[in-house]
Predict the 3D structure of the following.
Amino acid sequence: MRATQWMGKNHVEVNEVPDPQLLNDRDAIVRVTSTAICGSDLHLYDGFIPTMKKGDILGHEFMGEVVELGRGVSNLRVGDRVVVPFPIACGACNACARGLFSVCENSNPNAGMAQKLWGHSPCGIFGYSHLVGGYPGGQAEYARVPFADVGPLKIEDDLTDEQVLFLSDIFPTGYMGAEMCDISPGDVVAVWGAGPVGLFAVASARMLGAERVVAIDRFGYRLDKAREAGATDVLDYEEVDVLDALDELTAGRGPDGCIDAAGLEATHPTTAVDAYDRAKTAVMAETERPHALREAIMACRNGGTVSIIGVYGGLMDKFPVGSLMNRSLTVRTGQAHVQRYLRPLYEKIRDGEIDPTFLISHTLPLDRAPEGYRMFRDKEDDCTKVVLKP
Amino acid sequence: MSSSRTRPGPRRTARVLGLASTGLGVAMLRDPKGVARFSGVDDSATALSVIPLVGARELLHALPLLAGRPGWAWTRVAGDAVDLTAMGVALSNRGGERGRRLRTATAAVAALAALDLLTAARSRRAGSRSAARELLPSSAPWTSAIDVSAATTVSKPPQEVYARWHDFTRLPEFMAHVREVRAAGIGRWHWVAEAPGRRTVEWDAEVVEESPGERIRWRSLPGADVENAGVVEFRPAPGDQGTEVRVRLAYAQPGGTAGKAVAKLFGEAPDQQVRDDLARFKQILETGQVVRSEGTPEGPLARRMAKQQPAAPRS
């Protein structure tokens, strides 16, 4: 089959590789009909996530048709059309029983590696380094799906791939980011990063009843998309001082909920600050450039919530813990527990509450994945989201 | 999951000493004059040339100490002895302000030396030998031993978890290095384990205690290739979370080829291997299978973690 392989920093190739095989009774093989490049794939592309290996197949947002089933999967049939959640979860451990699917205790066979870096291991993830399992991803013609009786959502309506594909990751991720803010009527929510996850966080915050939603980015076309998603206000952080602007907008209170949808490769408008963190990450003295997170903490209203859904990998520097502690802030975070959100969000799409296709800017054949990665990273051609068709 | 060959107390103190060594080492290398002034020996040219060397020595043992290996406190004890001797000599011919500073510095080094000695001594007490002695047959003629422990929580009731472990012939399904366990008489089992270089080591073991739902203990019988023993305990986990499983294994290292084989078998990460076995045990009980990826097709396995296959299907 054809598959998108990570060949080194800034280097992906689409190559011919062997077809996947069932390794366990609870596996399924899915013929991928649509897959997408995620913002977090760019962290792999840019070489920020350790334990990648040359030849790893990328991609954790995918859907398709079941073509083969292990003996242990009784809830699916060959021919079923399914969306596959990016966290691999067993459904039986104490974490899964509590709905914390992205910290499944069994699905990462390399848990020992993750324990050394993070203390305990999260779940396994498709195509997302060996630290979280060494599983091939879905930017390929076929993918093996472990615990196929737990994760995949069967799509029985005539919704298009594009309408339901983002249930695999970015819609639930953005939704969870907004949900973690415990939005009450009158709340103001600010979202750092108007990429695909940030856009879904904006839309979800509106759905959950936020009075005002502020999107923060530096690309005009993305801020336009944020307005489309429901943002009442947008801030270009290269034009305005974000903290001042948020204070002005909330009459000095600060936003009740602050969502970091930027993650570890945030940029900073002040060259010196940006250079400081770039230099420190270059010599591995820190692994993140956490400008968005620092700002989200400083901006947040006393007693408010900072919700982190942007991806972080290791250690950060200059963490404003004093602001966090003295002002009674709450931090909530996590990789999305996608399995928990699949059905309710699917119903929202089906009922027309949201049309996720608004953020797709490019649809390319799988063979042009390398071009898709470059465009998405460099924000060429107003790129917001690349869907690949194997 | 957790495991250790050494108790946490000495490990924590080792880390503190490692930090102290780093601080001292860096200060001595970067500013020997300042350090000399601080300790009242800035009138000596010899001191200025010796201080950076002492700094380099500090950095040498800082690393293993920071990694939590209290045994390295012995190298600090040796260093302390050298330093205190030198300072004693220096004290004998200094008075006034310099003498006062030197006395303070000497007192500080002496206090640190006491902590070093204590940590080093505890590292020996907490080391693998004495712990392994509880488990292993006392007559065994071994010179050193590997003693590892690990724990996990399984979301099934203790009786069920116990029963799965007690099914001894199926132990190889989750013990990666055990090839076979077969009955060899009443309460006796013959074990075959893999050793490097396609070799195997074998032994007969007897079950010395079995308390259903609570505990199983076993140990090898005389004539084993490798003297060994183990105990696994099952306890209800708080809040209906299933069962806490704690396992301890000890392997004697008699020296000679068999001993070397055991050492190699456990490689440099014996703790990790026991944790991997427990991870597979938990996976089997909770999910009915050992979890495999294309990067780690065997399921959790220390040597595979170090040497991953690409995350892509193989032909």
Q: What stands out?
A: The radius of gyration of chain B is 26 Å. Chain B has two domains: 8-125, 129-306. The longest helix of chain B spans residues 96-125. The domain at 129-306 of chain B is CATH 3.30.530.20 (Alpha-D-Glucose-1,6-Bisphosphate; Chain A, domain 4).
